[in-house]
Amino acid sequence: MSAPSPLFVLHVSSPVGTIQLTSTENQLFRACFLENGPETDSPVIPTCLKEAATQLEEYFAGKRHTFDLPLYTQGTPFQQQVWQALQQIPMGKTDHYLGLAKRMGNAGAVRAVGVANGANPWMILVPCHRVIGAQGQLTGYAGGLWRKQWLLDHEAKMTGTYQTALF
Question: What sign has the CA pseudo-torsion 53, 3, 66, 115?
């Protein structure tokens, strides 16, 4: 799908690297890690981007367990269903692809759930990092497995459910 226009950009520093937030005037379009490249913010920053930055800063400070942001949902109906299911995984807990597929009423959709999880445009904010392999192993994460492990450890410490490294 094509991106809406205009888009605004804001960069947020975090313990796991720079997060690039992109939005329309009123909805968050994307949140992703910026590995390389210019960190140029838009000259005008909409309120929704400022709020996303604030909520991420609170999360990394250990003061926020959930996010409440207006998301620009540009995915298929199935992807949107998966992204909704991801938001139901509580902080400090994990799920796996089969568990998500079963909760969605379609145990045969495990691979499709994995693809939709990987297409999640709002890393951290829609917690795809909380999905692990069926045997408890870390599986792919667009931000890198080291970030996934860091996020899971951070959330476990915040909720008092500390877990040891999974890999």
Answer: negative
